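If you are new to this repository, start here. Below is one unmodified record pulled from the training split, so you can see the exact layout before writing a loader.
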Amino acid sequence: MSDDLIEKLARIPQFYMPSLNHSRDKIAFYWDITGRVELYVMNLSTGDYKQISDGEVPRALRSGFLWTRDDKGIIFAKDKDGDEKHNLYLLNLTTKEIEQLTNTPSFQEHVAHSSPDGKQLLFRSTRNGQMNLFSLDFETKEIIELTNYPRPVLGALWSPQNNFIVFGYNDTENLQNSDIWIMEPNGSNQRKLLSMKEGSRDGVTDISEDGKLLAITSDFEGNSRAGVYYLDTDEIKWFGDDRYQEYSGKLSKNGEFLVCIRNSKATISPLIYVLDSGTVRILDFPPGIAAGSAVTKNDESLIVTLNSSTSPSKLIKYNLNEDKVEELLPPHLGDLNPDFFIADDYVEYPSTDNLTIGAVLYKPKNIEKSKKLPALVQVHGGPTSQYLRNFSMFDQILVNNGFVILKPNFRGSTGYGRDFQDLNNEDIGGGDFEDVVAGVDYLKTLDYVDSSRIGIFGGSYGGYMTFWATVKKPDIWKAGAASVGITDWKLLHDESMPHFKHYLHMMFGKPDEKWDLYNERSPIHFVENLKTPLLIVHGTHDPRCPITQARIYKDKMLELGWKEGTEGEKTFEYVEHTDIGHGGSTDQEFRIRSFKTILDFFKRRL
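And here is the target side for that same chain:
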């Protein structure tokens, strides 16, 4: 594949975070059609859109944005070179003027919601330590701390009647727990509103127009279920059953239905539950990953994004009265032929502990009989994340270069129920690693895979698993590429922000009781086992997995006789990106650099 074709693929425009305004007649979204991420606003009745930012928004997106209540402005978060130390800015949609609302260059801040009178902004910040809730008065610029908890607040919504704020928090000793809390708008009378059971993860996604109903999600039965909570009576109505993973979204303006999404076997589809009857309506969407729950003015249409392994994301308006699909923003492929893209397959294979692991598999078209191809195991981040059957530029690049790709949803992944997700708690690099290794066994059963040429790669937790796999099972890998990965869990804990520390506590347990586990599962202590050529890629501004994680590993390899180089025995390759943080997939220029670096490495090493 030529560099020109790689650039064409990497420059396919992507849009992110579509959000309806309060009048429900316009939608804002990030889009990189110009070659860089900018903010756009579309009129839903005409389909016309316009660019409203000009270089002021971040290139790598790690935080969302919020419409002002009068729909005349958008509040967005911006960091510097991916360091995730966001400040908040207000962009006037008419004048294009930008006002900086907060200035905390050493901390993280994220928009949450706003008061219904439009006078106050609700946001989350680490400015006083842990991630907590604050309010900002738009006129006086006064900032008030609303919560002051030792563990992170997970999100918040302001009621339409301006009489309460709901948010997520955990005050129990069970670190996997999350409850729904409520307080007065000034922060007083904070109390737990709903806890289905200790250990369940309960959350709110919307509040009805009359302020009497909460759209909620809970995994108290194992799989996530969507429901509604009646504030006047404390009644809860659950929808569907526990056969699927379902999550609540937005309520209709008339309060008659709730939009949800269903996650099943690496696919996502929207559905609607009628509140009174509890009946479900499965929408007639084209196949693919259909995500979103925004309901337009007068409850006429649903706005979602839709993509598949062979089609980049498009913005869709689904007419609920006519079951009619309209493309608001189609994919822009340039001169690329849609037939060029290769479809994926969903497969399952056995692992240890009698588990069945679901995975996404790519293989090149028209494989010659008896030809053996190199294969790559791609490990996702998180680990509380999952691979979906969505469009991936890099997968298309790899598979069109003759690589077979297996993307396992190992234990600890989302999308397969709470019990499956919790299996790697206090066992990071244990059972989940065995699932990855079982993926290699599966690849070896495919008659078109060369079992002597199997590599591994991934970013963040996938980077950790690459480091870990190549020192724990060094003989099964021909090459590995670790992006923004973790090599020393204890050092990571020491260097993390408070809310990132809390996530580590959820994975490992209480640190004062689990330091041995932190050390036992850290690749830095096993580098002497390494036999595999490695590519190490890291951003110098990464706050989640700081650059020290890569540098100490590089130093240890050099100490053990490894050398930087592109060929030869005991050689490794090392790249630091000085303009990026924890990855930068929303930045086209970074995508091109990253794709070329990793592809070149595996073409040479496999």
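Two things worth knowing about this chain: The longest strand covers residues 449-459. The radius of gyration is 24 Å.
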